[in-house]
Amino acid sequence: MTDRDNAVFNTIRQPPNLRSGLADTLMAQIESGDLKPGQRLPTEQAIMRTTGVSRTIVREALATLRAKGLITTRQGLGAFVSNDPNPRSFSIIPNDLQSIDEILRVLELRMGVEYEAAGLAALRRTPEDLDRMQDRLDALDKALEEGGYGAQEDYAFHRSILVATQNSYYGRLFDTFGDLMVPRQWARLDKMTAAERKRHSARMRREHHAIFAAIRDGEEAAARRAIRTHLSKSAARFEELRDANTSS
């Protein structure tokens, strides 16, 4: 590798997720123009040597970039920056959510979107919207009562809020997330005692019912507060889980 390549690929020093750390480094270099459209990436061996990560990590990071359309591979020639590396659509793929820190970043994004959407939904919701939200809330209650994760039901309820804004762009944005926004692999329900699971379910139901009640009653400010409270508490729970995993 050249000196310039060494400057581009700085050694990654024990990030929470090595694959995400390498992918983010490469992505930043592409987006900044340090790696230009059509430029060939260094070989896997060269990246391993410069960054200090394993071949598996390198391959997973490159797979993430390919999935995002940022690089292409040519048989026998290696990987190249796409000629048009700016993605035409935003998406979150499963590999993006392999660490709690990544989930927390997505929750920050959701908070910005859903805070505004909840307020608009309180002002614009129709009777049909409220019926839809009630159906989704009932389905979530049932899933939680039966001891499930309720990921799909949770997603469907939150999406019904965005539909109630009467602005189709909100729903279309949320569709890029899918139920990845409720990552079941981190819920750890199987590690909870029966009492802990009961408290968890009650808390989730209470928070979602508060959101629905504010929107149903047309209380814009209360709807915004309720969604912010719910997502902030979700973030706090993930932070506690992260810290517990770090200390164990």
From TrEMBL:
PROSITE patterns: HTH_GNTR (PS50949)
Keyword terms of this UniProt record: DNA-binding, Transcription, Transcription regulation
InterPro entries per record: GntR_C, TF_FadR/GntR_C, Tscrpt_reg_HTH_GntR, WH-like_DNA-bd_sf, WH_DNA-bd_sf
Top-level taxonomic group: Bacteria
Domain spans labelled HTH gntR-type: 16-84
Keyword Transport included in the entry's annotation: no
SUPFAM superfamilies for the chain: GntR ligand-binding domain-like, Winged helix' DNA-binding domain
Pfam families membership: FCD (PF07729), GntR (PF00392)
GO molecular function: DNA binding; DNA-binding transcription factor activity
Protein name, UniProt field: Transcriptional regulator
